[in-house]
Write the structure tokens for this entry.
Amino acid sequence: MAAIATVDGWTERAAELDIPRQAFIDGRYTDAHDGATFACVSPIDGRELAQVAACTAEDVDRAVAGARAAFAAGTWATAAPKERKRVLLRLAELMREHADELGLLETLDMGKPIREARDTDVRLAAECIQYYAEAVDKVYDEIAPTSRDAVAMIYREPLGVVGAVVPWNFPLLMASWKLGPALAVGNSVVLKPAEQSPLTALRLGALASEAGLPDGVLQVVPGDGPGAGQPLGLHPDVDMIAFTGSTEVGKRFLRYAGESNMKRISLECGGKSPHIVLPDCHDLPAAASAAAWGVFYNQGEVCNAGTRLVVHEQIKDEFMDLLLAAARDIAPGNPLDPETNLGAMVDQTQTERVMGYIETGREEGADLILGGSRVRTDTGGFYIEPTVFDRVRNDMTIAREEIFGPVLSTIEVGSEAEAVTVANDTMYGLAAAVWTDSVDAAHRVARAIRAGVVWVNTFDAGDITSPFGGFKQSGFGRDKSIHALEKYADLKTVWIGLRP
């Protein structure tokens, strides 16, 4: 189906949209145990979209019990891989059929441009589910190379109940990164979406049921961190938490695991990615465009955003002119307009947080050379223009802490070695990039930087076939690729002694 082509068309579609409001537990929508709700507010204009079920410990208990019962029943967990494949392929197909609806829910809920929500996020989410569906019947168990008096079979078995806790910046895509491999292996999943953006997760629950997923295998419990996230992390019958979000909250889930049942944890946390431009880079316009989009894409609400521009002094002046020209072509607009390339911040709280960092940058002596203000305030929504700081030191707050907004810090260096030192001088290690025409420098820098992904002469490139995750306090465990299946399975050895 062709996408709606005009802002009026999307606005009319939004007025007709049936917004999911209830938790999805045991195959049906249901209110929270105590009937509590919270306001789901659109950052586009500040209006309330719906009152959504505010799940608490009682609801988490119910969801986990249903997920455990479904796992124990074995209808999904012990189904032949080709049967799980069939259901997941159908789910991917349904996601594509409902691309307009899912994209619109995403845009209304968290403010990203509809073009990105529908044509990128929904497309990649469906591709992710399809990838793991197609992979599951191609992963073999093993026979150990024992002596001839024994046979040792090594099986991969699902863990049981997985709690998936996902962030608000890419709600559907991050959910799919967890659900695809976890469900493909045979687990039951309790999905806890961010309270700022629960809508696509709630709709996904019903689509999964329509695709043929047995009741209880996918539960969706909206709510805030203390109400739903903490009880899920502490639950003694949850076997794993797969989390994407801030480093601060990731550390809480580590504590929850230790305080409960030693459940395993996978964490994809914050980042402060360095974007290095060396003096032998001859395609400076391409590098400048990548540096601008690398920090302003998705309103800067990206964990691997290239928020630290590390540029060599020999080319800095020329490069900054190109960067500012590229940045001026990126401006906040109505997210329902297909021509908009920068949307709204997710909510008032995040807007105030980002504006606080901008003020801190000024106070600490960085030069604000572009942006720095809220715009489109007459809409009632939350918009910040692309912002660039120059003369930033790597010990400044705006260079140390994850801002999660459209704010770039420019750090000048005098050598490749200094660039690597600056790049690694951070508690994070999610991603990095380097622009150079030297194959030697490309390899030297890529190997020297402590990060889970290093791009060379590009930024934020990749697809579902390559793993994604971080070093240091950016977390551990990997999403995407065939490797992600490993963290949702346990190895079991069955040793059979053979009679002579």
Q: What stands out?
A: The mean pLDDT is 97. The first helix runs from residue 7 to 16. The domain at 8-269 is CATH 3.40.605.10 (Aldehyde Dehydrogenase; Chain A, domain 1). The CA atoms of residues 296 and 406 lie 5 Å apart.
